[in-house]
Specification:
Length: 115
């Protein structure tokens, strides 16, 4: 998602904290108990938020980095199911990558999150 305006990074980060706080599925990890899969809903889970200065990158390198981040595998026992990565090109141009494991939602859910 492209953000074409100045961005208050603290407010942006707080917004993602509130979203994860409000939706237990985003604070859930998965493990096994007696050879059965089990959900573990955490009362708090740090949001996997990264901000990368991409101001000196050309477009091809930026695309490569976005795809690499999107393809990064999940460890469902320890990792958050939602990842938020902001690539900052300038104070008024940002690319926000949201990656969510399909165990946490479908495309309909993801569209609501984007909106």
């Amino acid at each position: 998602m492209q953000i074409s305006s100045e961005l208050d990074l603290r407010a942006w980060h707080r917004a993602w904290l509130h979203i994860v706080e409000r939706h237990p599925i985003l604070r859930t990890t998965y493990t096994q108990h007696q050879d059965q899969p089990v959900q573990v809903v955490h009362p708090y889970q740090e949001v996997d938020v990264k901000v990368t200065d991409a101001s000196s990158w050309n477009l091809d390198y930026l695309k490569k980095q976005i795809l690499a981040e999107a393809d990064r595998p999940y460890n469902l026992e320890t990792d958050p199911v939602l990842r938020v990565h902001l690539f900052t090109r300038s104070p008024e141009e940002h690319i926000q990558l949201l990656a969510m494991h399909h165990i946490a939602g479908d495309m309909w859910s993801f569209d609501i999150l984007l909106n």
